[in-house]
Inverse folding.
């Protein structure tokens, strides 16, 4: 099992001014993770929150590529409906090439109402169409030999060739953030790697991996745990701090609620829907179950359960622990995994 | 007078496979330039040439920012009609922030027929509209306090806020590539810094700077040479190599013709127009005049002429000399300038 980071937003939430310190600290955090043996750093793409989340994720990763040499760099996720697919293919190719083939390209359809509102894109059919068309053009860009043309509903190109060629051939691994059985089975059929969310309980995550494995095997493929990645909140504590675990869960719940609020359209103060509640699961018991928290041994037990289910990589979300917690994790948890 | 680099395409033309070596060599070249005291490295943005020019210029600059610490990084130029202005503002802000305020943002309308053809954008009215609207939204993004909305002909946004804030306030310097008197005077009135092209003779360049200075002074402003940058081909030779200067001019002319061909729509083999000939000036005498070439003293004389006219920075184009020529220039030419 590999361990990575999931974040990028963290420093922005600590420092609402969104100034350079927050970005600098995040970069230092990734550099420390590389030194400590973490496998990857995945960063979000978000827009218009007002608290400085990473927006231009490929620019951020390009910079991090220049400051590191081994750690993989990923998007979790690039929201395809916001992007021109040819420009996106060029950016991803460039980052992959310059990083020496270290890019993991996580993609999604978007889910935050304030982002659809900001970009003036309908979150229903239009988002789906743009997602599908963007993915189609990305794949054409990387698998067509020579020039190609494309005439779709949202994009048209004539006799184009995407340069530079990425280092990973034919293209960086494409990961998809998926949760429902239908979308997970679709990802498996389409050769996409699976990113499982940060909110689901351990049982839910294992169920999702089962769907993915089953669909691959039904189609004659061979399941590979390295193609499954789960995001998890990390609250590894020293023994003398275990009494703070309850407060850490409170903090995590407050964080989920803040994410939920940040996704609202500005000025929208309607009651939350059932879907909002389901996605941003704030049930205390589920959060306690989902979080990798407590002493090292508690964390190891949960991670072993995920590993046995076929999760090849866990991406850690940790808005409070900083580099000392990464060091603690590398020292006490990592050695239990090959 | 400051000296910078203009390029990015260079390694691609040396190596038509567009593989990682070409990008790696370019990055090493910029790192060497920083060490030698060069002030900046400006990179082109081009698409669909088939020989690996830099396409995702801000991703490239983000990576270079991670590998350097002092040298300014610039675009020459970002072609606005290809871009979504909000995504572009986010990318530029991110690169500026992560580089510690080292970004220079050169912008243009585009001129290569094959790029308009590839992006399926009309090179006439549509390109102008997109350029103007993109520039308007970029400026709003960086000068509006809080959220704003925009409804234009090509783009619409609701209640958006561009994050992160760039390090340079209110935004990175905006440079415009301009050649005609009307466009240069317009740049001066609009607070944009001036990038003068690589093809014009020394007299033509001085004339262009005069128009810029005159328009600033007419409007009550104070002319600043640091706001004027000229691109120049560099062919500094050691005394024992001076007999190769003629061959270097031949090489330069062949390079201009190759650029001209690369800008054609694939399959188009029509005769060149007067405008093509004017832009890609291949008259031998004009090329010899425009190039900063010969022994160090010859280069110094031409550079002093430009400096006296008000050019504050010269960006060197040198597809053949590599790091040794940068070292030669730093040793023999730079000391004559403060």
């Amino acid at each position: 099992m590999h361990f990575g980071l999931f974040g990028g937003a963290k420093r922005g939430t600590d420092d609402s001014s969104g100034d350079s310190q927050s970005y600098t600290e995040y970069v230092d955090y990734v550099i420390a993770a590389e030194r400590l043996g973490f496998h990857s750093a995945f960063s979000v793409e978000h827009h218009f929150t007002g608290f400085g989340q990473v927006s231009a994720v490929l620019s951020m990763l390009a910079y991090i590529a220049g400051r590191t040499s081994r750690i993989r760099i990923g998007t979790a996720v690039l929201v395809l409906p916001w992007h021109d697919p040819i420009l996106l293919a060029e950016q991803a190719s460039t980052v992959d090439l310059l990083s020496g083939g270290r890019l993991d390209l996580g993609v999604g359809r978007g889910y935050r109402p304030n982002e659809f509102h900001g970009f003036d894109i309908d979150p229903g059919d239009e988002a789906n169409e743009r997602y599908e068309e963007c993915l189609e053009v990305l794949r054409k860009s990387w698998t067509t030999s020579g020039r190609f043309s494309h005439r779709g509903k949202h994009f048209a190109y004539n006799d184009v060739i995407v340069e530079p060629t990425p280092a990973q051939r034919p293209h960086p691994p494409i990961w998809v953030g998926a949760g429902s059985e239908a979308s997970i089975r679709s990802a498996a059929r389409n050769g996409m790697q699976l990113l499982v969310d940060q909110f689901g309980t351990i049982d839910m995550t294992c169920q999702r991996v089962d769907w993915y494995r089953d669909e691959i095997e039904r189609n004659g493929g061979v399941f590979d745990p390295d193609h499954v990645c789960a995001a998890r909140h990390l609250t590894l504590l020293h023994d003398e701090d275990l009494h703070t675990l309850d407060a850490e869960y409170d903090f995590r719940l407050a964080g989920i609620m803040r994410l939920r609020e940040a996704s609202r359209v500005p000025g929208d103060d309607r009651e939350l829907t059932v879907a909002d509640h389901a996605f941003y699961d704030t049930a205390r018991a589920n959060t306690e179950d989902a979080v990798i928290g407590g002493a090292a041994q508690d964390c190891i037990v949960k991670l072993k359960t995920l590993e046995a289910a076929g999760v090849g990589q866990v991406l850690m979300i940790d808005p409070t622990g900083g580099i000392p917690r990464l060091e603690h994790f590398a020292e006490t948890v990592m050695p239990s995994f090959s």
Remarks:
- The first strand of chain A starts at residue 2 and ends at 7.
- Chain A touches chain B through 61 residues (CB under 8 Å).
- Residues 2-336 of chain A form a domain with the TIM Barrel fold (CATH 3.20.20.30).
